[in-house]
Amino acid sequence: MSNIDKRALREAAERAGQNDWEYVYTSDLSAPGRGYITVGGAEAIYCLNKAAGGVKQSENVLRYIAAASPETMLALLNEIAELEQRHCGTALLEREEMHTKTLGRMLDELDAKDRRIAELEMRTMALRG
Q1: What tens digit of pLDDT does each residue of 46-101 get?
Q2: pTM: predicted TM-score of the whole model, two decimal places
Q3: Out of the domains of life, which is the source (predicted)?
Q4: DSSP conformation class of 67
């Protein structure tokens, strides 16, 4: 999803307003299509019957546009941002745990080497003594 400009999408959704979007079916033969979308209760978007795929496809397109309202887009963008933030926090915790384990292992190795040095020094002193 990195190829989607989420900031531009958010700005577009905010500019489109916070009104309710709703699909309305109409059988009015004088209407340019079989349905339209209302934005804030006013007729706003019509889909012509001549769209590729015919009337049913036009209705499906309108239903999709109504479902993909600015409110829905903002909610999805907020959810994505939250998941990204959570993922980033999880990655930091995992990295911290890895460093803690590495440090623990290095301290254990250092202790073992210190013990070995002390042992060898005692042997050397015993041989000289």
Answers
A1: 766 565 666 677 778 888 888 888 999 999 999 999 998 888 888 888 888 999 99
A2: 0.58
A3: Bacteria
A4: H
Q: Measured in whole angstroms, how far is the alpha carbon of residue 40 from the centre of its chain? A: 28
Distance, CA of 66 to CA of 39 (rounded, Å): 9
Burial classification of residue 45, based on how many CB atoms lie within 10 Å of its CB (0-12 exposed, 13-18 middle, 19 or more buried): middle
| ∠ CA 36-34-22, rounded to 5° | 25
Say how many C-beta atoms besides its own lie within 10 A of residue 77's C-beta.
Answer: 16
Cite the beta strand spans of 3-95 per DSSP E: 21-25, 35-39, 42-46
Q: For the chain, state the CA radius of gyration.
A: 33
Question: 51: Cβ–Cβ under 8 A, 6 or more apart, which residues?
Answer: 57, 58, 61
The dihedrals phi and psi of 15, each to the nearest 5 degrees, come to -70, -30
Instruction: List the structure tokens of 9.
Output: 């999408």
Question: How far is 54 from 51, CA to CA, in rounded Å?
Answer: 6
Closest of 104, 128, 60, 113 to residue 47, by C-alpha: 60
Residues in the chain: 129
